[in-house]
Design goal:
The complex is a heterodimer. Chain A is α/β, with parallel strands linked by helices. Chain A is built from nine helices and ten strands. In chain A, strand 4 and strand 5 (67-68) form a beta hairpin. In chain A, helix 3 (99-109) runs parallel beside helix 5 (140-152) and helix 5 runs parallel beside helix 6. Chain B is mostly helical. Chain B has a single domain, classed as MetI-like (MetI-like fold, Orthogonal Bundle). The model of chain B has no long low-confidence stretch (mean pLDDT 94). Classes of the chains: A alpha/beta, B mainly alpha.
C-alpha cells in the first residue's frame, strides 16, 4: 500500500544543514493502523508528509498504491492528494467558515463520487448540534473532530494524522482516539499516525515505527490495549503519577 | 455671534455648488483609484504573496518584477509621479490636465501599488496551516486563493482597503496641480490663494468627516465578517 524506499531529506537550519529523514525504508500494509513515534525533531512529520507530497524527499522513492508519488505531474499529484485525508495538530480549520462549511470543504474542490453525507459524518463525530457554529466557539477536542469529519467525508483510502492529540488534554485525547478507531472500523482505510504520545499508539495502532534523529531505529508490533483501560480519568492518573512511589 | 454665523452660513450656501462640484471630482478620482486597487492591486498583492520564496507559485522573476513595481511607485514622491506620468497620460487619454479622469491615472497607479502591499501583508498573516491544508486537499492555485486565503484574510483585506482609501483621499488633494480639481484643490484655491479661511476650514472639515465615516464603516464591516 505505502512503500518508502531509501527516502532522505535534509533541511538547511540555523545551525547548518540538518538531516530530518535519513535513508528510511518502510512498508505499510493496506488497512493497517500504523504509528510513527519519536521525540520532537525526529523527522516523523516530514516522513508522514512524503506520503501526500507535502514534502518531497531529496532522494528515494515514495510508492502509494503502486504509484510513484514524486514522479507525478501537477494534475495527477493533486488527484493523488485528494484520495488522502489528513488531520493536523493545530486542526487547521478555516475560522471564517462554519463547522458544516469546513467539513464540506473538500467537496467544494472536487466532485468526489463516494462522499459520505454531511449528516452522517456530523453524527459520526458527534457534532450534529454544532453544524452552524464557528470554530472559535468550539473546544479543542471539538475542533479536531471537525478536522476528522473533513477528512472522512471524502472516504479517503489513507488517513494521515500529524500529532492529532498533542494540542489536547487527556480526556479529549481519549475521545479523539475513540473516533479514529471507530473510523477505521467503519470505513477501513489505512491510517498512519505520527505522535510522541505512546499511550495513543498503544490504544490505536497494530504496528509502530520508532524514529530517532531522522533514522528508523525499530518497527514494533504493538500489544494493543483497550482504550478505556489505558486512559483513565485525570484524577486517577494524577494519583498514580504523584502519589505512588 | 449669531450675525457672524449668519454671514458664514450665507457664504457656505454661496460656495455650495462649487463645493459639490469639487466633491464630484474627488468622487471620480477616488472611484477610479478604488476600482484599480481592487481589480489590479488585489491580484498583484496576491501574486507577490504566491510567487515569493517557498510559496506554491514560487517564481523569482515574477516576484522581483512585481516587487520592484510596488517599491518604485511607492518611493516616488507623489507629486513627481503625477508630473512624470503626464506624457504617458496625454498619449493614452488625449489630455493630461484639467479634468478629473486624466488626474485619475496617477491615482490608479499609486492605488495599485499601495493596496498590493496591504494585500500581501494580509495574506502573510494567514496561518501557514491554512496553506498546508489546501495543499493536502489537492487544491489548485485559484481554489487556494478564493476558497482559503481570501476567506481567512477577508477582514484584514477590508481593513487594508479602508486604510488605503484614506490615503487615496490624501493623494487626491494634490491633483489640483494638474487641474484635476477635487475637494483638496477647492480648499487650496479658496482658502490659501484667496484667503477665504472659513471656506478652507469648511472643506477640511468635510474631508475629516468623510475620512471618519469611511474608517468607521470599514472597521464595523470588518468586525462583522470576522468570525475568527
Amino acid at each position: 500500500m505505502i512503500d518508502l524506499k531509501n527516502v532522505s531529506k535534509t533541511f538547511s537550519g540555523q545551525n547548518g544543514p540538518f538531516k530530518a529523514v535519513d535513508d528510511i525504508n518502510l512498508h505499510i500494509e493496506e488497512n493497517e493502523l500504523f504509528g510513527v513515534i519519536g521525540e520532537s525533531g525526529a523527522g516523523k512529520s516530514t516522513l508522514l508528509r512524503f506520503i501526500n507530497a507535502l514534502e518531497t524527499p531529496d532522494s528515494g522513492e515514495v510508492v502509494v498504491d503502486g504509484i510513484n508519488v514524486h514522479k507525478l505531474d501537477k494534475q495527477a499529484l493533486r488527484l493523488h492528494q485528494k484520495q488522502i485525508g489528513m488531520i493536523f495538530q493545530q486542526f487547521n480549520l478555516l475560522n471564517n467558515k462554519t463547522v458544516e462549511e469546513n467539513i464540506r470543504m473538500p467537496l467544494e474542490l472536487y466532485p468526489y463520487k463516494e462522499s459520505i453525507e454531511l449528516d452522517r459524518v456530523l453524527d459520526f463525530v458527534g457534532l450534529s448540534d454544532k453544524r452552524t457554529s464557528y470554530p472559535s466557539e468550539l473546544s479543542g477536542g471539538q475542533k479536531q473532530r471537525v478536522g476528522i469529519a473533513r477528512a472522512l467525508i471524502t472516504r479517503p483510502k489513507i488517513l494521515l494524522c500529524d500529532e492529532p492529540t498533542s494540542a489536547l488534554d487527556l480526556g479529549t485525547t481519549t475521545e479523539i482516539v475513540d473516533v479514529l478507531k471507530k473510523a477505521h472500523e467503519n470505513f477501513g482505510m489505512t491510517i498512519v499516525i505520527v505522535t510522541h504520545e505512546l499511550d495513543v499508539i498503544k490504544a490505536l495502532c497494530t504496528r509502530a515505527a520508532v524514529m530517532e534523529k531522522g533514522k528508523l531505529v525499530d518497527v514494533i508490533d504493538v500489544a494493543r490495549a483497550d482504550v478505556h483501560e489505558e486512559f483513565r480519568t485525570y484524577h486517577e492518573r494524577a494519583l498514580e503519577v504523584l502519589r505512588d512511589a | 455671534m449669531p450675525e457672524t454665523l449668519n454671514i458664514y452660513l450665507e457664504r457656505v450656501v454661496e460656495y455650495a455648488p462649487r463645493l459639490a462640484e469639487s466633491l464630484t471630482e474627488s468622487g471620480i478620482m477616488l472611484g477610479f483609484a478604488s476600482m484599480a486597487a481592487i481589480l489590479l492591486g488585489l491580484p498583484l498583492g496576491t501574486l507577490l504573496f504566491l510567487t515569493a520564496n517557498g510559496r506554491p507559485m514560487e517564481n523569482k522573476f515574477l516576484y522581483t518584477l512585481s516587487n520592484a513595481f510596488v517599491n518604485i511607485v511607492r518611493s516616488f514622491p507623489f507629486l513627481l509621479l503625477v508630473i512624470a506620468m503626464q506624457p504617458a497620460i496625454r498619449y493614452f487619454y488625449g489630455r493630461a490636465t484639467g479634468d478629473p479622469i486624466a488626474a485619475s491615472f496617477p491615482m490608479m497607479v499609486i492605488a495599485i501599488a499601495l493596496y498590493a502591499r496591504f494585500v500581501e501583508q494580509s495574506l502573510l498573516d494567514v496561518p501557514k496551516g491554512v496553506l498546508e491544508t489546501a495543499q493536502s486537499m489537492g487544491a489548485t492555485i485559484p481554489q487556494l486563493v478564493w476558497k482559503f486565503l481570501y476567506v481567512e484574510a477577508r477582514s484584514s483585506l477590508l481593513i487594508g482597503f479602508t486604510t488605503a482609501f484614506v490615503s487615496f483621499i490624501s493623494y487626491s488633494t494634490v491633483m489640483g496641480v494638474v487641474g484635476g480639481g477635487g475637494i483638496g484643490d477647492f480648499a487650496i484655491r479658496y482658502g490659501y490663494q484667496r484667503y477665504e479661511n472659513d471656506i478652507m476650514y469648511t472643506a477640511i472639515i468635510v474631508i475629516i468627516v468623510f475620512v471618519e465615516v469611511v474608517q468607521w464603516l470599514g472597521l464595523k464591516l470588518a468586525r462583522k465578517i470576522d468570525k475568527r
